[in-house]
Fold each of these.
Amino acid sequence: MAGNANQVCSMGTLINLQNVGKTYITGSVANEVLKNVNLTIDEGEMVVILGPSGSGKSTLLNMLGGLDSASCGTITFGEKTVTELDDSRLSDFRAEDVGIVFQFYNLIPTLTAAENVALMSELGVEIMDPMEALKLVGLAGYENKFPSQMSGGQQQRVGIARALVVDPEIVFADEPTGNLDSNTTLEVLKLMQKIVHEKNQTMVMVTHDNYLASFGDKVIHIRDGKIIGIDEHPGGRTELNENEITDMYPGGTLAVPGEEITPYENA
Ligand code: ADP
Ligand code: MG
């Protein structure tokens, strides 16, 4: 790529969705859960998919990560057309290009932090040094701890290290702080934001929470399976104030009175 280090380069498109739809058929009932989704995700962005429960966030994320297939439309990922990959190429794509962070961490209780992080290498996937990945998430020295010996926030950091260790093109996180208290939620969120900005790691996070969404560079508002607006605020929120912290609900859900991201209607 041309240019020098002092130049701000505009990032390329990593993912592109064109007219993507998903319909689940249950018996004789067709449930159209994603309708005509068009969007692009650029390299190095922290993208947030924001919408209420049942709006189709997880379905959309699963489709982006090749975990579920689209009923119609086209998804491209770099040079690959995800919607045309056969099963074997799709599983390579999931293992090598994608890192996933889960709401309930999904750590294996009988394995140490380092062993959990290294798990993908057991499946033959090339990984970086698990210790380096643990260091990235602030857990140097925790490599021999078992999940039961760590707090929820620390377990989720291991979950993030496990996603990063394959050096993925993109990290997907579905309600990654949904099981954490408010202070830990903020720590984990800021860690993810830092990784995106410092490592230029593309990330897509799903949440139902306006406040958490405000940390993203781009917020995609989804309702009833349709994108109703996209907000861009490059850099995202980085500062917090005391009032905002005391206004959080327990259980990792945060509310900021008077601060609603108002989605605009597509013209
Ligand atoms: P969100 O993550 O925003 O809460 P989901 O993507 O999980 O929403 O679900 C969107 C809609 O799709 C819901 O109405 C849900 O019931 C439906 N749905 C999700 N998965 C399936 C499935 N495997 N079969 C049928 N319907 C599903
Ligand atoms: Mg969901």
Amino acid sequence: MTDIINIDTPAPTFSDFGLHPSILQAVSETGYTTPTPIQAQAMPMVMDGRDVMGAAQTGTGKTAAFTLPILHRLMQFANTSASPARHPVRALILTPTRELADQVAESVTTYAKSTPLRSTVVFGGVDIGPQREALRRGCEILIATPGRLLDHVEQKNVNLSQVGILVLDEADRMLDMGFLPDLDRIVRLLPAKRQGLLFSATFSNEIRKLGRSYLTAPAEIEVAARNATADTVSQIAYPLAGNDKRAAVVHLVKSRGFNQVIVFSNTKIGTSRLARELVRDGVKAESIHGDKSQLDRMKALEAFKAGELEVLVATDVAARGLDVAGVPCVINYDLPYNAEDYVHRIGRTGRAGNTGEAIAFFAPEEERYLLDIEKLIKTKIPRGQLALPASSSSSSSSSRRVPAGGRGERRSYSSTAPAKPVDEFFYKPYVPSSSTGKTDAVRSKSVATSTKKSVGILLGGR
Ligand code: AMP
């Protein structure tokens, strides 16, 4: 049987958890003051060695929710010996994508920096050699994508017989991506007596089944309602002809002065092409998709995180697990065919309590996807009218046109001080969902109505 835990109890402080002082020190250096709801609920249970199933979107602080107590529990094994034998893998964290693995590894390194505990990350798409060497040196915490981990197992680079803690992060994505057989193979290599933690954006029947087979009497923690969209994300949809969409991206970026926008496109080719064209339009843009080398993907991601890009054009898989603080806006250039992907996409903004905007473009033939999305999130997405500068597209469309300030060409956009936004929507401060007006479709941008709890969600890739 599982316990259902309520999230209405007051949040404790990090020092209430009894974390090892070296870990508490690292937490205070990050500047976090208050545990997030998932942290407040999960940490005491993970500290106690219980199995936990957590339904939480990325952006809720779930990585720290499992990492901090795991590090605390492993401190009993911490040692400074150089011998690999003294550093067996004791905690295994599996993630669906390389990007997520990399991000989790970064968090583990941050929180473990004042301890002698070692961690390593392994994922596909990069040279296996350095990973082999790192594994052979020994590490208490291993973060891995399933496929690459099995490659290492086959090459006998890693021994999993002392794993006492297993984490399945974004388990729903792992199932979506067909990792179940790999997970089964991996779990069979682990000791039967172990602590199991499973995190997933949603608790579908499949996830519950997975929980039953890999976990023992897990506590269930749910901090978000299924398929709602984050309260911190305002949404709007603009009807646009297909060939006006690019001009609309340029316009939004330049008129709003955005410098970290993720633009989602449905195809790898479309993603590359759009990024190239945006660069020609004077927008600092890069693309990230599955056909790019891991190195190129990481370079683009780093440039984006460093604030060097105005736009990152991404496919769903490539963006899975992206955790970039402060992304102000996500644009759905193409609406996703799968409505759930919309929720995952817009979960890239409005993270960790920040507000964000999710803008969708839809050509007439795409409206049915918008209706599917609205059905899934049980919310009507306000429709707006985007006023494009008269020169910024080759075709007529349903969008309104205004003069481009007399300068004619598309490249007349200046990237210095943001131009005055054309749409009055842009003058409005963010209005929390509970107080939005119902009559003004544009202003009632805080879509997730007050009855909805945040969900965010995430992404995946091998
Ligand atoms: P996650 O859901 O683990 O991807 O975390 C989302 C973001 O929230 C990360 O950028 C974390 O650094 C940040 N974060 C995690 N815990 C806290 C906290 N207690 N207070 C503020 N930010 C946090």
